[in-house]
TrEMBL record:
Regions crossing the membrane: 32-52, 72-97, 109-129
Protein source organism: Chitinophaga silvisoli
Protein name listed in UniProt: Sterol desaturase family protein
Subcellular location: Endomembrane system
MF GO annotations: glyceryl-ether monooxygenase activity; iron ion binding
Length: 342
């Protein structure tokens, strides 16, 4: 019976129903007037969207078990240890850096706007370095392995990535004066939206969300981020507000004439958990082992993915540059590209 209780608890936890069930059993719905009550009531939205997404895929005969199997397996592996490390990282950063904050904020709407802009900057830094530093890419690459887009992809992360991300984001926010209660509220919004933008074509075919596509980062933008197309590589690093992508020149719309190809550029066996989860570490270790000299070995760790000591670089920058150069040879294609990026 204990096994069934454990499975039941895990299912209820995954669906985010704990708070709602507590309200139902106690008959106390006054908690809906509090922040924690509201957060608890909203928690089931993304898991149920995932169930709707899977159901629609089955109904329209587009369901493939391999599209969901690996993200769910990774979720199970990360269930305890990843969450523990993230909470510990957040608590550590708050404890160490709060006394060095440049000023103190309060839980008000105007400080929420300020705090979210700062949070997005921290998120941009973590995400940008996750693509531009080989070691950090090893932590982040698991999230980019799926070759389709659906809500289960939001659960596919290497177990250390959450702690790495939260150290950077929390430190930036705390030093810039975002107080912990405001930070936790921002984290909730970010977590919800960060999960939602992985919604697949089975639920949102277009993903642009109408006029919102001009003002925030939508599922369409995040599909671009997960693409391995040269035009789309290393773009849209923010989560909700696109301000820092615009500032640093990494903002990219989805081009209807450039269909998104999901995944990473190397060949991956998506049926092999170890290739999906540890593959990038293996290839990094291989490059470090073969590299001549200590300096080159260190460079492989900290230079962008695709860097080579031979000078034959296959980084996102060099691949995109070559692609754009090839477009210049075809005037009509170049015009099309300029129209989509203007």
């Amino acid at each position: 019976m204990s096994l069934f209780h454990t499975l039941y608890d895990e299912l209820i936890g995954f669906l985010g129903l704990n708070a709602l069930l507590d309200m139902y059993h106690t008959g106390n719905y006054q908690s809906l007037l509090t922040l924690n009550g509201i957060l608890g009531a909203v928690s089931p939205v993304l898991p149920f969207l995932l169930l709707i997404e899977i159901t629609r895929a089955i109904v329209y005969k587009r369901f493939k078990i391999e599209d969901y199997r690996m993200p769910f397996l990774i979720f199970i592996i990360n269930r305890v240890i990843g969450r523990f490390l993230s909470i510990a990282a957040i608590a550590f950063c708050i404890g160490v850096f709060e006394k060095y904050a440049i000023f103190k904020t309060t839980f008000t709407w105007y400080w929420l706007i300020y705090g979210y802009i700062i949070w997005e900057f921290g998120h941009f830094l973590y995400h940008y370095w996750g693509h531009r530093v080989r070691l950090f890419w090893c932590l982040h690459a698991t999230h980019h392995m799926p070759q389709t887009m659906n809500l289960s992809v939001s659960y596919a992360h290497f177990f250390l990535e959450g702690a790495y991300a939260d150290i950077i984001r929390t430190t930036v926010c705390i030093l810039m004066g975002v107080n912990p209660p405001l930070l936790f509220f921002i984290m909730f919004i970010d977590g919800f939206w960060g999960g939602f933008i992985h919604v697949g074509e089975n639920v949102l075919k277009n993903g642009r969300l109408g006029f919102l596509n001009k003002w925030i980062l939508t599922p369409s933008h995040h599909r671009v981020h997960h693409a391995k197309n040269p035009l789309y590589m290393d773009t849209n690093f923010c989560n909700l507000l696109n301000i820092w992508d615009r500032v640093f020149g990494t903002y990219q719309h989805e081009d209807p004439k450039e269909p998104v190809q999901y995944g990473v550029t190397r060949n991956v066996n998506n049926r092999n958990f170890f290739d999906v989860y540890f593959g990038e570490f293996y290839y990094l270790a291989l490059d470090v082992w073969k590299a001549p000299g200590i300096l080159n070995k260190v460079r492989y760790i900290f230079m962008p993915p695709g860097w080579s000591h031979t000078g034959d670089h296959k980084t996102a920058v060099t691949v995109k540059r070559a692609y754009l150069e090839s477009l210049k040879q075809t005037p009509s294609t170049t015009t099309q590209y300029e129209a989509t990026t203007s």
